[in-house]
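Anyone else keep sequences and structure tokens together like this?

Example one:
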Amino acid sequence: MRENELALSWVKFMTAEKFYSPLKIGLFIVVLSYFLWNLHATFTLSWVGEWNFRGHVNFNIEIQDLSGFVGTLFRFAAGILAFGAVVYYFVKKNLSKPALYKILRWLLVLEAIYWLSLLATAVTDTQSMLSLLNHMHHMTLELWLRSFALGEVPSIVESIVPPIVLLILAFKLSPNKPLKGAIKWVLITGTVYIFVYWLLNSTLWLSTWLAKGTTYLTTYPQNLFSFVTTIFGVLALGIYAAYFTKKSVGAQSLQELKLKKIGAIITALGLFYLWNYLTWIFFGGWSSWYAWFMGHNADLFLLSLPLLGVPLLFANELSEKNDQPKQ
């Protein structure tokens, strides 16, 4: 009970007594990162024409690239909407509840469309892999299963699961509905995102390890640390997030949630992306892992998440300071 009271007092402190709080500034930077990263992805057009090879058109690559670009446009629209809403809130220092819910629902729908656009990649790649079953003399069944598990399974999961939970959350999010349902699906959606990020990144690291060999890990300690944190660390974070979600789905209001634990989860996920980004900057090197993480990663803006998570880590401490009588 005391912990909930502290959380409530902290929320009041951050929203009423100090408008430009660390939490709000962190939120602004994360939203700005989301907007800028999608701006960059939208207007980076080096992929145009890569489906042409020696006069022949690879229609699978063409379909994948065009579908992915359409999805990027929707995510860019989400970035514009989110950034515009945050700027408006900071300028006007107010945002009505109906407007907030409407903006959030649109953001969720636009984000769902982005993930759904990746279905074209999943379908075309799966079709190509299935066609190889008729020519198994080119590869063993074990190699085929490994390639399918590391390549097609992540594509299928990312194009189906996130859109489903995002659209359910958009439906549950309404000012006329009890907050309990929205809180439940916010927690579920966050947990699903972590597991999807784990699946995408771990399969890429496993593919790199199988191609480069164990020496690629043992010779370079930063690679070994990245490999371990990706395969086991993010998985452990997802399991903890699932446990936290299970314990918190009955919350009737935001004040009943454990803010410090939410902050820890957000910070840990952000540090994973920040670490891998800094590793490449300071140590360099290139592989299929870094080609994915640095060159084709649509979620690299997540490295800014600690700026949002760290203020939540100190939620109770800030509440206690606010509760102390002024001298």
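And example two:
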Amino acid sequence: MLAGYIGMAVATTTNVLVTYSCNENMDKGFMAAYQGGQVLGFCLVGVALLVLEILIIGYKDNVVRGETADFEQIRY
């Protein structure tokens, strides 16, 4: 949700900038659109890595200590 919110905020700002830049020069408009798309991509990857790191830190102690579920009960 955080990546979506940041992406939509950047997209609306980028759309205005691209429209204005394309009136002056198409190359400037393309570069503005390209850079605006990069922001969402990097934000999405950054948030995904942050969540993954939080999960790893949260589960690391249980896995290292061996306090996982008792697999003997699961076997038939």
